[in-house]
């Protein structure tokens, strides 16, 4: 892939996801809030990221912790108010950072006034803002669709004698994006926040937004086994990724572009060919960054990674900018999945691949598996399908800031337990230790910022070793070789043909001996390459 020159901020920058319930509590209720985020902005700036994506902060009954929105243009009182939000955005901008909000357009809360009206009678003007259907021929749900959180996607409403659709919890009714009034109301929501100065949005489950007009049954998934989520019994052929959803994406992009330098990031889980369509075309662009979760979803070995990187790069439209994600509030912690040593390798991979990286709060400390006693589990997805042990709480535990009571996160017992090792694994301790994960992240982020090769350079995969992943990043006269040893044994690597091996710029280890053509067990290294002969 060739080097790019004309680059907007969101191509060069790094996005940092803040889960506001768990970042910093300022008022002693055990739940993080906006004033807490403000108090920690210097930390974010010093980390060396460019933009903050804030998970939902809107009024919400919290059935799905903010992804059930009861008012798209307000601030949840637990988190603060609009005045605090305005202060947050100006403090963010004062530090040269950007702010992306989490827009949740597929569904609202069942407590949203729109839904309360919609369910009040069949002829209410807002009835059609949600998706209502008569019962099927047998008196059951209108079709076989399964909610992402298990069970039917349809909930019976006794009072009006119809079912409504919910792709997630029954407390999250799906909005009807075929209705022009709803569409106009949602454009007003985007304008409301853009006018307040936000730099863009992460758009929740964007590929869910329109359903097949005739609501046919989804086909059975022949690959399903009982260990897998109930949702995956069916292929979501008719309930997601409909062609009409792309027209919404075009409209949202047009609106964002009318404000200048803003960015839209779409949450999308699809195979490459369909995923790439969410970029749109140069004439009709859609989201700038369709989130790419492949590092989370695939096995952690060099052969698999090489394959997914090659396939993904190969699937991008010529004008499409790549992006990579390694953790989120929905996924297991990377350090829990691959171990602490490989988590450093993962950090190096994330920050040296071509494309915008998204980093999730706490991963910069290497937080790993967290013990959550059953009585403290809160994730509604887990509580509905507990037998699968798929809880998302373990990646949502509060940020450990120091070794004071409750890790400096709060003055009260936090809503979720802290990571077990918070007394040692916290921001203060890691700031003081030059070999810590946090200092490693800071170093890599600074290196990335200063290196055109890493931010906008070309990308070429090298080597064919099953344990070592290597690639070249190049811009101008800067050529870098990245060698990542995915195994727990030392491995030899070859210097790419025609180059000389220059300085070691960074290693995941405190002391690296990599110049000899060998990378140590679990080591990742960035080398400078000297001129091609
Ligand atoms: C997205 C969010 C997740 C939420 C779901 C429903 O996947 O990331 O946390 O539960 O959408 O809104």
TrEMBL record:
Enzyme Commission number: 3.2.1.10, 3.2.1.20
Class of enzymatic activity (EC top level): hydrolase
Domain annotation Glycosyl hydrolase family 13 catalytic: ranges: 17-396
Gene3D superfamilies on file: Glycosidases (3.20.20.80), Golgi alpha-mannosidase II (2.60.40.1180), Oligo-1,6-glucosidase, Domain 2 (3.90.400.10)
Pfam families for the chain: Alpha-amylase
InterPro entries: GH, GH13_cat_dom, Glyco_hydro_b, O16G_dom_2
A single BP term in Gene Ontology: oligosaccharide catabolic process
Keywords recorded for this protein, A-Z: Glycosidase, Hydrolase
Origin: domain of life: Bacteria
Listed GO MF terms: alpha-1,4-glucosidase activity; alpha-amylase activity; oligo-1,6-glucosidase activity
Family: Belongs to the glycosyl hydrolase 13 family.
Protein name: Oligo-1,6-glucosidase/alpha-glucosidase
Species of provenance: Novosphingobium fluoreni
């Amino acid at each position: 892939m060739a080097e790019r020159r004309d680059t907007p901020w969101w191509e060069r920058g790094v996005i940092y996801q803040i889960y506001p319930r768990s970042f910093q509590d300022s008022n002693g209720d055990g739940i993080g809030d906006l004033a807490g985020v403000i108090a920690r902005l210097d930390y974010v700036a010093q980390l060396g990221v460019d933009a903050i994506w804030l998970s939902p902060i809107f009024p919400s009954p919290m059935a799905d912790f903010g992804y059930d929105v009861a008012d798209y243009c307000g601030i949840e009182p637990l988190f603060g108010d609009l005045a605090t939000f305005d202060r947050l955005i100006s403090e963010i901008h004062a530090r040269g950072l950007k702010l992306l909000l989490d827009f949740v357009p597929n569904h609202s809360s069942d407590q949203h006034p729109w839904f309360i009206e919609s369910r009040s009678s069949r002829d209410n003007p807002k009835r059609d803002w949600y998706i209502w259907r008569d019962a099927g021929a047998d008196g059951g749900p209108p079709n076989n669709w399964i909610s992402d959180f298990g069970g039917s996607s349809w909930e019976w409403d006794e009072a009006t004698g119809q079912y409504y659709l919910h792709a997630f919890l029954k407390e999250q009714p799906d909005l009807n994006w075929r209705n022009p009034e709803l569409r106009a109301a949602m454009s007003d929501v985007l304008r409301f926040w853009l006018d307040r100065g936000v730099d863009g949005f992460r758009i929740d489950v964007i590929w869910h937004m329109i359903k097949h007009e005739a609501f046919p049954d989804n086909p059975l998934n022949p690959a399903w086994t009982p260990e897998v989520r109930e949702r995956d019994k069916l292929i979501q052929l008719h309930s997601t990724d409909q062609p009409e959803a792309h027209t919404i994406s075009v409209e949202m992009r047009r609106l964002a572009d009318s404000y200048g330098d803003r960015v839209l990031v779409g949450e999308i889980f699809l195979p490459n060919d369909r995923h790439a369509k969410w970029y749109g075309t140069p004439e009709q662009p859609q989201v700038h960054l369709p989130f790419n979760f492949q590092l989370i979803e695939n096995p952690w070995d060099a052969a698999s990674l090489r394959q997914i990187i090659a396939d993904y790069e190969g699937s991008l439209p010529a004008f499409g900018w790549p992006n990579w994600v390694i953790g989120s509030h929905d996924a297991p912690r990377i350090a829990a999945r691959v171990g602490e040593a490989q988590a450093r390798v993962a950090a190096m991979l994330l920050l040296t691949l071509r494309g915008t990286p998204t980093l999730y709060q706490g991963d910069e400390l290497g937080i790993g598996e967290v013990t959550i006693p059953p009585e403290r589990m809160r994730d509604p997805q887990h509580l509905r399908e507990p037998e699968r042990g798929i809880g998302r709480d373990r990646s949502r535990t509060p940020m450990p800031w120091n070794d004071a009571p409750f890790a400096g996160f709060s003055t009260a017992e936090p809503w979720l337990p802290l990571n077990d090792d918070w007394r040692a694994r916290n921001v203060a301790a890691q700031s003081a230790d030059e070999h810590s994960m946090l200092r490693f992240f800071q170093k890599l982020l600074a290196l990335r910022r200063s290196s055109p090769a890493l931010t906008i350079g070309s990308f070429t995969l090298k080597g064919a070793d099953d344990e070592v992943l290597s690639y070249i990043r190049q811009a101008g006269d800067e050529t870098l070789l990245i060698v990542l040893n995915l195994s727990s044994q030392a491995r030899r690597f070859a210097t790419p043909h025609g180059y000389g091996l220059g300085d070691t710029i960074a290693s995941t280890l405190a002391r690296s001996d990599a110049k000899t053509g060998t990378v140590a067990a679990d080591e990742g290294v960035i080398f400078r390459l000297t001129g091609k002969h």
